[in-house]
Amino acid sequence: MPKIATREAYGEALAELGEEIKDIVVLDADLSKSTKTSVFAKKFPERFFNMGIAEQNLMGTAAGLATCGKIPFASTFAIFATGRAFEQIRNSICYPNLNVKIAATHAGITVGEDGATHQSIEDIALMRALPNMTVISPADATETKMAVRAAAQMKGPVYLRLGRHPVETIFGEGYEFKPGKGVILREGRDVAIIATGVMVAEALKAAEILEKDGINAMVVNIHTIKPIDEEVILKAAECGAIVTAEEHSIIGGLGSAVAEVLSEKKPVPIKRIGIKDVFGMSGKPEELMKAYGLTAEDIAEAAVRSVKKSID
Amino acid sequence: MILGDGEIQEGQIWEAAIFAANNNLDNLCAFIDYNKLQLTSKVEDVFGKCNLLSVWTDLGWQCLEIDGHDFEEIDMAVKFKSGKPKVIIAHTIKGKGVSFMENKIEWHSKKISEEEFEKAMLELR
Amino acid sequence: MPVSKEKLEELTKTARRVRRHIIEMTAEAGSGHPGGSLSCADILVALYFQEMKIDPKNPNWPDRDRFVLSKGHAAPALYAVLAERGYFPKEELKTLRKINSILQGHPDMKKTPGVDMTTGSLGQGLSAANGMALAGKLDGKSYRVYVLLGDGELEEGQVWEAAMAAAHYKLDNLTAFVDHNGLQIDGPIVQVMSPEIIQEKFRAFGWHVIDVDGHDFEDILRAIEEAKSTKGRPTVIVARTVKGKGVPYMENQVDWHGKAPSREQAEEALKALGG
Fold it and tell me: Where are the domains of chain C?
């Protein structure tokens, strides 16, 4: 399967949807070549607005467009979208529940060489805390295309978390994407790995490693982190041990969301794979994944430990 | 302090600029690297209506305009005494010194090939 | 088109009623921002009772003119004007800032009929107004968008991001007002952080600028006409106003930015305003 960055899939999907849904307008903060909104811009120049390097105004303008019935997709890097313009997203978009889609690319540590200032590892936590917001973190190009369509079709604010770095395409055309519904990619009984975004591919590899050790792991893809699919998490909890995996801080992201469900409804041991409350650094994406403990091997190791613990 | 010409589209710059003027920070000297190109386009295509010089002057800054590749002019501008915070608009060429990079937007952030590297190093010798 | 003498008198009377509401509402609520509400009352009355193409029976009419109160803390003025204009019963005004009220401390478009944009966090309104104006251009609609900013609010960087964008996109269907009362929470604006010559700044950012007396209806309405006939760029009307206008003990007093009058003070204010 070819490796495609989710931002590439976003650009294509947006340009396709633009044909079908005339109310879609796209705003960017001078990063259209990187966020791939340039594909839409070329096709529909009159419906594309480059707001310049001004993210707060980007979000506010999107809100105004939404009050007039438009479906604005506002794009920039995740760090600027959710960090710099957080309060605009909160007060001008989420509070009035406006139909704005925030499609943020270059999320997570796989931004790579640009370093810590550009690696957004707290965006899920920030967006998840906002009432009315839906948070979607697709795992590959196929899922991204489906998520973009779903976001355009649902009412209300959506945060789409997209990556810069090419990732393996896991899903084929027949894949079914339902917002808010987790997907069991692999059945298992000893331990469940719940992953999101680029970590889904790593989780699947981890399950294969575990298989060789005689551990039968379930793999669940949580593409919609909010609202979270409690049902599938409780099903996963029947394995008796859970490992979560995300390219995000272990504080406030997928791991926290899963822990919230488990601790209230069905407490089982849980280990969180993610960035352990530190900032990133420059390096190649693969090197960074290794340095911050985000590889299939790291997941498998955590799974082994949690299985042992649950047996003890 | 050196600012990019695209960077000054960020509102935070204007918050800081007003503060500096109102507190008479005459020990502050800002350069604007005015190469007229930002990531996706020419700066003037993004926000061409804005008159850079008069905006800073109106805010209460001392505004100077120089050739950003002329050491004499840079030196004079830095030494220029003013009772206000000072902004030096330095006209520059993006990619200066490497002929195939000069004034080319794509070289904002592009990987250099081995061949290009050799060529650039030859020109810079 | 010059406004008739009768119409001017009518607007003056409406503004007086609006100011009375502002005093009664904030006194009843025990909190709120009377000073900045009184300063912008005449601008709102001019817009809602003379200028804007609106239908109070159909607040979400797609072709209506829009208004964004970027200085959201002046909500009492907006609510009073909307109630007077018939968007909701005047009795509702008494519920300002109370639990389960449709009248929140700052404007909420999902709760109050006639409110076009949720605001309250300073600096955000002009961006939203830009979005509305862009949508109007895109759809070939003739509606106009008005936005009212406070002068202290101009210290927010987002305002200048939006000012730059409005000029770039040639939003001549957008008119901004600056309620230039010269006072903000921590004192006179010249002391806190002076956006000294507001006019010059907007001009440098590519806007058409008009100066008016913000308490003179003829002046305000003339400026709006000029804004409508200005093509190719947005217009800002810098309105010189008096904070607390109409209530002698509040006029130009910083303390009345975010303080409600007591019962006795309210009585005194109502007496000064007259019926």
Answer: 5-273
